[in-house]
Structure formats: structure tokens, C-alpha cells
Amino acid sequence: MSLETTMNSDTILKVEHLSMKFGGLMAINDFSFEAKRGEITALIGPNGAGKTTVFNCITGFYKPTMGMIVLNQKAGKQYLLERLPDFEITKHAKVARTFQNIRLFSGLTVLENLLVAQHNKLMVASGFTVLGLLGFPTYRKAAKEAIELAKHWLEKADLIDRADDPAGDLSYGAQRRLEIARAMCTGPELLCLDEPAAGLNPRESAALNTLLRSIRADTGTSLLLIEHDMSVVMEISDHVVVLEYGQKISDGTPDHVKNDPKVIAAYLGVEDDEVEDVISEVESLEGGVN
Ligand SMILES: Nc1ncnc2c1ncn2[C@@H]1O[C@H](COP(=O)(O)OP(=O)(O)OP(=O)(O)O)[C@@H](O)[C@H]1O
């Protein structure tokens, strides 16, 4: 489903008045934010704040109780994601995602995982017939291009030397990069990453940051990530949105959010009326250190 509305072309994603209710629990309550094209936007917040629920609404795994989610493609075509089934969100709106738990085909090789991701393209080239098996020229050309694209992303993810190894043999950090490479092979306009740094050691975390930065620099893909690792968030994000109990409590640059009293209070778990005390304590500690 597509529509034409006036929207700033710099905006890739606009979430408006999103609410999601599970029985009596209001997991997301009137949440709005925008992600800019070509930027890395991070969605952060304490455990249970509603981050994964927002992701699931954007990627079609949940249908929100209320609200609108507009995906604004580079060419100007817009999609109301809350009305689309998940496979159309991937295929037409060009939103790809990774999961908190790695979901690779562990028995297939690293390269094969990236070719499976391009299955749709190859099926079209085969005319949905046995032409592929018979080596029809259009299919051969598409298959060659698919391998080239896979190799490109294996280079970017620093996995080219492991192309023929089973994906299950890779280290945890390498599997995370493979998942991202696989998502990039689908040519997404928006890539949603659910805790990409979870469980990574500092070296793997640095390799992940390099990959995400190169995606931002070299492709038109915008990134939206949920992340608990603040060093990753503060280092690579252009824009940070903070959720607490399903509501937005802060929105801005990493520096703005880091110094926002509401965010400090949310992470320290203090009540609103204690925020000022916490801030002055933090400031006096900072004064002491400097
Ligand atoms: N399918 C569901 N059914 C019922 N409640 C749910 C469901 N999914 C999430 N919730 C509830 O919604 C709230 C938000 O959960 P969510 O997983 O979105 O938070 P989160 O910020 O991603 O947390 P974490 O950082 O721990 O992953 C929680 O109270 C959770 O228990």
C-alpha cells in the first residue's frame, strides 16, 4: 500500500501517536518520533521500556493498537507500515531487520546465507520456472550479480575469508556481522538492528561499529537500532530517542540525551522529584573529577 503525503524528504521514517496494548498493559503509549535519511538513530531505554515492541510494530510483527508509521522512500514513495503484512514491509517498503537472537542458516555456508537472502530476485529472474536450472541467460546474469553483491558485503563485513565455512562455525561477533551483511543484500532503505552489540567483546564491538559506519557512509541506507551498550550508542548514533514505560522522555543528539536529567533519572531508577538532587550530585562528582 502506498500513499502520497507531504513529508520532508530528509525523513525516512515517521512514527506518529503509536500505541500498543497487550491486554491491560499499555506497552507503548502515544509515542512519536522521526528518523532522518542516511542517519543512525538509536532507540534506547531501560528494560521493558517498549523498544522491541516499537521495532515489532515498524517491521510488521505486531499490528499497533493505534498510530501511524510512515516509511518515506528516497524516490518519494510512501508506505503506511502499520497496514502492511511483514513480507511486504521487507519486499516493497524495503525495511530489513535483524533480531536479538541470531537467526542464520547455521548449516549453510556464509556465502549461501547471503544468496538465500536474494532468493526473491533470483526467482523473478528464473520466471518462476525451471529456466534457472537450465541456465537461461537472464537467470545466469542474475545469479552472477547475486554472488558479486554477496562478495561485496562479505568484504565489508570482513568475512570474505570465511565465505565457504558453515555460518554456525563463525564466532558470535562474526555471526552478527553476517546477519547485517545478509540484511544489506536485500537493498534496504531502512535497516532495523535489534541489539547488534549484545554479547560482543570490545574487539567485536569495534568491528561492528566500523561496519555500521561504513553502511552509513557508503550506502543510502538509514539505520535504526535498539542498543543497551551505551558506548556503541554514543559513538555511532546521530540521533537518540529514549523510551521509558512506553513513552518518549528524550529525543536529540547523543550529547543532549546523555545530559538530560530525565534520562539520567530513568537509568538510575529515581522518582521525578528526586531528579534535581541526582543532577546536582552528578555535577558535583564531575566537578570533583575535573
Ligand atoms: N507479546 C507480548 N505480550 C504481552 N506483553 C508483552 C508482549 N511483548 C512485550 N510485552 C510487554 O511490553 C512491555 C515492553 O516490552 P519490550 O520487550 O518492548 O521492552 P524492551 O524495551 O524491548 O525491553 P528489553 O530491553 O528488556 O528487551 C513489557 O512490559 C513486556 O512485558
Automatic annotation (TrEMBL):
Superkingdom of the source species: Bacteria
Pfam families reported in the protein's UniProt record: ABC_tran (PF00005), BCA_ABC_TP_C (PF12399)
Record-level GO cellular component terms: plasma membrane
Biological process according to GO: D-alanine transmembrane transport; L-alanine transport; L-isoleucine import across plasma membrane; L-valine import across plasma membrane
Key word ATP-binding present: yes
Residue ranges of every copy of the ABC transporter domain listed in the record: 13-270
Protein known as: ABC transporter ATP-binding protein
GO molecular function: ATP binding; ATP hydrolysis activity; L-isoleucine transmembrane transporter activity; L-phenylalanine transmembrane transporter activity; L-valine transmembrane transporter activity
Species: Metarhizobium album
Keywords of this entry: Amino-acid transport, ATP-binding, Nucleotide-binding, Transport
Family, per entry: Belongs to the ABC transporter superfamily.
Organismal lineage: Bacteria, Pseudomonadati, Pseudomonadota, Alphaproteobacteria, Hyphomicrobiales
Alphabetized SMART domains for the sequence: AAA (SM00382)
